[in-house]
Amino acid sequence: MTRLPLDGMRVADLSMMWAGPFATKLLAEMGADVLKIESPSAWDNIRTLIPFPADSEPWNASYYFNTYNRQKRSVTLDLAQDAGRDVFLRLLAHCDVLVENYRADVLDNLGIGYDVLRAANPQLVIVSMAGFGKTGEDRSLVGFGPVIEMMSGLTSLTGYGDDGIPYKCGVSYGDPVGGQMAAAAVVLGLMQRRRTGTGTVIDLAQRETGAAMAGEAFVAASRHGTDQPQWGNRDPRLAPQGCYRCADQDLTRWEGTATPPVPGTEEQWVVVAARTDAEWRALARLVGRDDLAGLDLATRQQRHDELDEVLAAWARQRTAADVVAEVRAAGATAGRVHDTVSVHDDPQLAARGHWSTFPHPHMPDGWRQPVAAWHRVGEDRGLRARAPLFGEHTRTVLTELLGCTADELDELAAASVIGDAPINPGVG
Amino acid sequence: MVAQPLDGIRVLELGGGLAAAFATHLLAGYGAEVVRVDPPAHADAPPGMTEDQEAALLGGKRRIDADAAEVRRLAGVADVIVEDLDPATAAHLAFDPAELRAEREELVVVTISPFGRSGPDRDAGATNATVFATSGMMSLTGDPERTPLVTGGSQALHVGGLNAFGAALSALFGAQLHGTGAWVDISVQECLAGMLELYGPGGAYGLPPTLRFGNWHRACWALYPCSDGHAGVFCLERQVPSLFAAIGDPELDDPRFRDPLQRPDNEEELSASVIGFMVDHTGDDLLQIGQQRKIPFGIVRRPSELLEAPALRTRGFFDEVALPDGTVVTTPGRPFLGLGWTAPDRVHRPGEDTDAVHRDWSTPAPGGVA
């Protein structure tokens, strides 16, 4: 059996919401034993962000939580209690990595600052991923993914370009990119430890990861003294490129359900582009406009609005799948704007086994989850384990790693240091 | 000098695209020796990186010209190959990761492509926007009354590069630990399709498609105008009381706003109150209030503003890089603190290092895994 690169590495995961759990999801996919540590009185909010009133344990029933926390083990420990901190520090001696995405001051407030953590295990690789880092003037700012995206410069670059309005990404974009960078930081820290024999502390400001994703915009501002314009769906290096509406899709299967589709979701769209003169010639002929096929790039850019109208009229008469197939067959470039349902039926993603259905006790029919994007060719892409139930592995882990007795565990449970359900869960 | 985690590691960059360049930019910063084979210029090729992208991502790398035989030879002494070759060029170079790894199982090859190296779309060309479209993320972005919108700054390609960076590191660590590298096939579409927050999993769980929200999801999770630009407030339920206290409108004590189960029926009215508060304050005012009251406010900052931001300067975030014409530009530097980062001194000219690399890379690196 092939060994995964992080086989044998254990991660203490104090992270919550989306950025940190995204990082530790990647580490779990690469073989790490991730111990997701939550307190019975302060659990990962993602568990209860979406109400599931019909489920007896709604904190275990969230497709949001269960997608990004699979292949981890769940351990409960209340770090605000002395007994919980003590167990936690003993547990760290058996871990290689600690990941946390608390606000900058929270570890110290809990009495587990870096000096305490490193005393517990000098070989520990610690990755802190506060939104704005542990130092600097902005360290005490509070922020989630959209705030990170805005404060990193990324949001300013997104917009239609004709009204000056910046648009946030449709997802909390700062979170997954922060998580991807944090996973890389963990591995670098482990490589450094392998060379030096000692652990390290990595201070990852999610805002800086976001800014690193926009290097060209910072160069533009530095070099030319002005910020890049918002390009909308166009690209300054090629033309035309745009997003065009196609024939609508049928949504009747959701009519009359508890969550009927909202107006607008019947719309289907494609992005079509001509990267070169040759692609443009092919595209112009495809849409029946041979008279435009000879336009050079500069002219296409000048007459972009007119070309948009031509392409839009052609696309509106076809399904999105047909537009993509015809444009690609002609030799130009196109992509269907998949919605949050159709993306699960994309033939390319299906052919590559990108979705894997895995059952869960509170979601017995399973749902299609994305497998590891770091696809190691020749290795099985399927999921290995579901997301854990709240506290599912607490007793096993504390017994196996720390030798805790049943009496000790019962005592911890009686004091709510550990538990198998959140205390007073609500919504949010 | 501080030892770096990738000291002695040789990385070969092939393809010339932004995604591979971003991945190897990060590898170089943490100590790897990166050699970039510049793509030969030919008429009617899709556009390559812009000058600004090159300035941001090519600093500190050695740049060479190489034919198929030389690429093959360099691949034989590299520890890591990161490539975003288009299929035709890969065929022209006879570049075959499986074959290379059959000769040296410790070798790490990371391939980045729009749709991956298998499946019906494996050879389909793409732009940043067309691949972004296929992921599902574009359908969630933009004004619901207008077209779906691609995010700015070539994010699809950057996400591909960022994932390639992590994948290369994990495979390299595996090679160091277990003796076996990997060929990692990164599909940009897959990277993005796995980042659909709760909306993608909801679609998989039987919910109908989610319509893009624009800048407004709900009153306490939205981007608004403020008195000097645009600012957002993004509150979890536990932070809503602090926001209401900051707004100071006694009307907000009413259960129709306080109760999270009643609030959805009164979002429009609540939004009017929130927006009134936002437009009465500057972005900096809002940040200060947020700091004091632990409310997640944010400002839409422009790169030109961030170049002067005290917090980023204090943390030493930016690098200064000299371009071949002598111009010095400011670029985002190390993505995190705690490990040694080498700021690139300059961007080399295309082909500048061809002879030196031919000489230096004649045998495996002494510090690498090759």
Description:
The complex is a heterodimer of chains A (428) and B (370). Chain A has two domains: 268 residues, Rossmann fold; 105 residues, 2-Layer Sandwich (formyl-coa transferase, domain 3), CATH 3.30.1540. In chain A, helix 1 packs across helix 7 and helix 7 crosses helix 8. With 428 residues, chain A is α/β, with parallel strands linked by helices. In chain A, strands 3-2-1-4-5-6 form a six-stranded parallel beta sheet, with helices on both faces. A three-stranded antiparallel beta sheet of chain A has the order 7-8-9. A two-stranded antiparallel ribbon of chain A has the order 10-11. Chain A contains 16 helices and twelve strands. Chain B has 370 residues and is α/β, with parallel strands linked by helices. Chain B folds into two domains: 233 residues, Crotonobetainyl-coa:carnitine coa-transferase, domain 1 (Rossmann fold), CATH 3.40.50.10540; 87 residues, formyl-coa transferase, domain 3. Chain B is built from 16 helices and twelve strands. Chain B has a six-stranded parallel beta sheet with strand order 3-2-1-4-5-6, sandwiched between helices. A four-stranded antiparallel beta sheet of chain B has the order 7-8-9-10, with helices on one face. The model of chain B has no long low-confidence stretch (mean pLDDT 95). At the A-B interface, helix 2, helix 6, helix 7, strand 6 and helix 8 of A face helix 1, helix 2, helix 6, helix 7 and strand 6 of B.
End-to-end gap of chain A:
42 Å
What structural class do helix, strand and pairing data of chain A support? alpha/beta
CA radius of gyration of chain A is 25 Å
Q: Regarding CATH, which class of the largest domain in chain B?
A: Alpha Beta
Q: How many domain modules of chain A?
A: 2
**C-alpha geometry of chain A:** globular
Helix and strand string of chain B, N-terminal first? Answer: EHEHEHEHHEHHEHHEEEHHHHEHHEEH
Strand order of the largest sheet of chain A: 3-2-1-4-5-6
User: What is the helix content of chain B?
Assistant: 25-40%
How many alpha or pi helices of chain B? 16
Overall average residue pLDDT of chain A: 96
Pair with the most extensive interface?
Answer: A-B, 166 and 156 residues
User: Could you name the ranges of chain B where pLDDT drops below 50 across 5 or more consecutive residues?
Assistant: none
* Rg of Cα set of chain B: 24 Å
Number of DSSP-assigned strands of chain A:
12
CATH architectural group of the largest domain in chain B: 3-Layer(aba) Sandwich
Helix content of chain A: 25-40%
